[in-house]
Design a protein that fits this description.
- By secondary structure, the chain is an all-beta fold.
- It is built from no helices and nine strands.
- Strands 3, 4, 7, 8 and 9 form a five-stranded antiparallel sheet that branches.
- A hairpin with a 2-residue loop joins strand 3 and strand 4.
- The protein is elongated and about 45 Å long.
Length: 103
């Protein structure tokens, strides 16, 4: 997943941004199947944002489902279909983005 954050402020600002602060949640039929926050992620750092200049964060999902112990478990073999992804950071969420996975 590529997560783009863009400032809309006319003045520069700083935000804690990175894998440890912006996490991707994948759901299927309304149930969370993966949340990057359950993984062992590097700490976020303070990043300076300027108007209209995107900062990109890349997070990978290997189709493993989250279990209470973290990034373990798996989806059923050949699990494909429609999923939804949303990004959460600093109490804010992105719009929901549906996507399809082939079996």
């Amino acid at each position: 997943f590529s997560v783009y954050a863009v400032s809309t402020s006319a003045t520069a600002c700083a935000l804690t941004y990175g894998p440890g602060s912006a996490h991707v949640i994948v759901t299927r039929h309304g149930h969370v199947v993966w949340d990057s926050a359950a993984c062992n992620l590097p700490a976020a750092r303070t990043v300076r944002f300027t108007l209209g200049v995107p900062r990109v964060l890349t997070t990978s999902w290997n189709r493993q489902a989250t279990t209470p112990s973290g990034c373990a478990g798996s989806l059923s073999a050949g699990a494909g279909g429609t999923f939804d992804a949303v990004v959460m950071t600093a109490g804010q969420s992105s719009p929901v983005h549906p996507f399809k996975l082939d079996k």
